[in-house]
């Protein structure tokens, strides 16, 4: 497994995981950190655009298509990769943030938004921290952060990940 620290996020759909991770990435990047994000998508997603060269190669049967330019590189592989394979692919970053992959054993921050009425996906003690606007839930958690405390959450992640 990678020596790069990994922090996961867990919440029910519609709670704001992606938005929170986006804000944390922005904050940590502004402090000079290099960040990777790995997201599990339970649905079929399409990264290629129909008619583009990469789409054409994939639809012709290529098992692996790599598109690269001066600014970015993308790899499209026609098979699922295990979480450990994905982690092994990550390099030259200070931290890996993970959305999804609930079955994997990584330290996780639980997120709960009162408006969803769903609480946390697992017991509060299973998380290294909880982010919520629910005062009743917050009373049973430590540490707990408000949904808009991006600086506090980012500082906690830096301390926990030792970066």
Strand order of the largest sheet: 2-5-1-6-7-8
Our measurement of the CA-to-CA distance between the termini, rounded to an integer number of angstroms, reads 18 Å
What is the CATH superfamily?
P-loop containing nucleotide triphosphate hydrolases
Helix content: 25-40%
Q: Which structural class fits the helix and strand makeup?
A: alpha/beta
| Number of discrete helical segments | 5
Task: State the name of the first-level CATH class.
Answer: Alpha Beta
Q: What is the strand content? A: 15-25%
Global morphology: globular
Sketch the topology as an H/E string, one letter per element: EHEHEEHEEEHEH
Instruction: Please tell me the total number of domains.
Output: 1
Mean pLDDT: 93
Low-confidence stretches: none
CATH architecture: 3-Layer(aba) Sandwich
Biggest pleated sheet: 6 strands, parallel
Question: Using DSSP, what is the number of strands?
Answer: 8
Stated plainly, the CATH topology is called Rossmann fold
Give Rg in angstroms.
18 Å
């Amino acid at each position: 497994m990678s020596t790069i620290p990994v922090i996961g996020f867990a919440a029910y759909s519609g709670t704001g995981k992606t938005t929170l991770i986006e804000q944390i990435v922005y904050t940590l990047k502004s402090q000079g950190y290099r960040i990777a994000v790995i997201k599990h998508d339970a649905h079929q997603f399409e990264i290629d655009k129909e008619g583009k060269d990469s789409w054409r190669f994939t639809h012709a049967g290529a098992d692996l298509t790599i598109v690269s330019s001066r600014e970015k590189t993308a790899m499209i592989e026609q098979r699922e990769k295990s979480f450990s394979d994905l982690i092994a692919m990550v390099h030259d970053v200070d931290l890996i943030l993970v959305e999804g992959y609930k079955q994997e054993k990584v330290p996780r921050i639980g997120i709960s938004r009162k408006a969803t009425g769903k609480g946390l996906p697992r017991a509060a003690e299973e998380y290294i921290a909880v982010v919520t606007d629910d005062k009743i839930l917050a009373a049973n958690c430590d540490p707990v952060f408000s949904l808009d405390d991006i600086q506090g959450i980012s500082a906690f992640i830096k301390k926990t990940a030792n970066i």
